[in-house]
Design brief:
Blueprint: E1 2-6, H1 10-21, E2 25-29, H2 33-40, H3 51-60, E3 64-67, H4 70-76, E4 79-82, H5 97-109, E5 114-118, H6 126-141, E6 147-151, H7 161-166, E7 171-174, H8 178-187, E8 198-201, H9 203-234, H10 238-246, H11 267-280, H12 286-298, H13 301-309, E9 318-322, H14 337-347, E10 351-355, H15 360-367, E11 373-375, H16 379-383, E12 388-391, H17 403-409, E13 414-417, H18 424-428, E14 433-435
Parallel strand pairs: 1-2, 1-4, 2-3, 4-5, 5-6, 7-8, 9-10, 9-12, 10-11, 12-13, 13-14
Length: 446
């Protein structure tokens, strides 16, 4: 099938590459000429495992192309995907300007019937807005062309997006149009062979499904973080509680790891957008408001504990920070807990030495050159000259450190672990003080 994807971010680039990999003829369109030129040269702008070889192989095979020519993209695709950003507006609502701009572009250039597939995460009712936008442009052009607008939300995890796209656990398609359903079933047939993963529903239900899914996962994270704070007050160990919870198959282990809150491009934005949608129709989403409130507090927790340990001021102190990306296997720092930590550390007077396996360039882009920030080439280098260590992202490389070397390097022998990576008894045997989430602080034994 001939497919056009507008947008070459995480969703558009991964979806386009994976569709090309099963044999579809894909053109990806983006307004960023420098980004398109880089993609044409084989340079991938994001860190996503498995994506670079996938893009290069399908470019070489001629099944995947990149362009800034919107007219070419519209002419090419029988199915046209919208995979552009929907950043939060000032009031928390999803900003649909990019989605509707692409809708106008499609309507301006289309000369035959098209099926428009909304892959972007958008509020309920966006498909209607896209359809109205297309219809108005066609009326202005005085042409009568058939089109359908379908909701087909993505459920990709950054760091595992390629695998998720190749082996989806569900494919949600929102449409009541028989022709559009046939096209989408044909498109996804290669991913639907072992058992039927396609879940058909109406457009508005599909739009809400995406938000509901992310809100549920965010709720699990905020719930376990609330239990972690309660466990500390009651003298319980949240890691034992987590194992007890996760062993219940009705709950499971996914998304019940205590930490420093959720971040990234999806959960914070989507929870805010769903809250705004609810409030805009006069419904008070009490649970979602609590989820967001707990997460806002949790992202400040690690900084508060470090600052409190040092009596309210970090002037003259250097804190090593392991992990800048909002999660492992990505370089994405959007809404990352590390950003809240660093700002608080700097405000308290600290110097920071930081390392992340993938997000160093992104950190340089965000923070620029600062006298109070040193970006280090390895975890060990980040410890050099530091008084204490703060762990923010649970990269595998941080899981089995040299504790003896860590104790030697850190002047104050303190570790503030925002991801509960270590066994308290093990780390304290090396003379390290250890503060984690939902467990009692432990003083080093030697």
């Amino acid at each position: 099938m001939k497919v056009t994807v507008f947008g070459t971010g995480y969703v558009g680039l991964v979806q386009g590459a994976v569709l090309a990999d099963v044999g579809h003829d894909v053109i990806c369109v983006d307004v960023d000429a420098a980004k398109v030129a880089a993609l044409q040269a084989g340079h991938i702008p994001i860190h996503e495992p498995g994506l670079e070889p996938l893009v290069k192989a399908n470019q070489a095979a001629g099944r995947l192309r990149f362009t800034t020519d919107a007219a070419q993209g519209v002419a090419h695709g029988e199915l046209i995907f919208l995979a552009v950003g929907t950043p939060p507006d000032e009031d928390g609502s999803a900003d649909l300007q990019h989605v509707l701009a692409v809708a106008r572009t499609i309507a301006t250039h289309m000369t035959e019937p098209k099926t428009i597939v909304n892959k972007s995460t958008v509020p309920v009712g966006t498909a209607d807005k896209v359809a109205d936008t297309v219809r108005k442009v066609l009326e202005t052009r005085r042409v009568a062309l058939a089109f359908e607008v379908v909701s087909n939300p993505e459920f990709l995890k950054e760091g595992a997006a390629v695998a998720d796209c190749k082996r989806p656990d569900r494919i949600v398609i929102g449409t009541r149009a028989p022709q559009a359903e046939r096209q989408l079933r044909e498109l996804y047939a290669p991913f639907n062979r072992n058992h039927d993963r396609i879940v058909m529903m109406d457009v508005r239900s599909a739009e809400l499904t995406k938000y509901a899914a992310n809100a549920m996962l965010a709720t699990k994270i905020s719930f376990i973080n609330e239990m972690a704070n309660l466990a500390e007050q009651l003298g319980a160990d949240i890691e034992d509680v987590r194992r007890g919870l996760g062993s219940d198959p009705r709950i499971g282990y996914h998304f019940i790891y205590p930490g420093v809150g959720y971040g990234g491009s999806c959960f914070p934005k989507d929870v805010k957008a769903l809250i705004h949608t609810a409030q805009s129709i006069g419904f008070t989403p009490d649970l979602l408001l609590a989820v967001e409130s707990r997460n806002d507090a949790q992202r400040q927790l690690l900084a508060r504990r470090i600052i409190a340990h040092y009596g309210g001021s970090l002037r003259g102190k250097t804190i090593a920070v392991w992990g800048l990306a909002f999660k492992p296997e990505t370089d994405d720092m959007r809404e990352a807990p590390s950003r809240y930590l660093l700002q608080s550390l700097w405000a308290a007077g600290a110097q920071v030495r930081a390392h992340d396996p993938a997000a160093m360039d992104e950190a340089r882009r965000i923070f620029g050159e600062r006298d109070d920030l040193v970006l280090c080439g390895s975890p060990t280098e980040a410890l050099e000259g530091a008084d204490a260590l703060a762990i923010v992202t649970e990269w595998k490389i941080f899981r089995v450190p040299d504790f003896a070397q860590m104790a030697h390097a850190l002047h104050d022998r303190m570790v503030f672990d925002g991801r509960n990576l270590y066994d308290p008894e093990t780390i304290t045997r090396f003379g390290l003080g250890y503060v984690s989430i939902g467990r009692a602080p432990v003083v080093g034994m030697s």
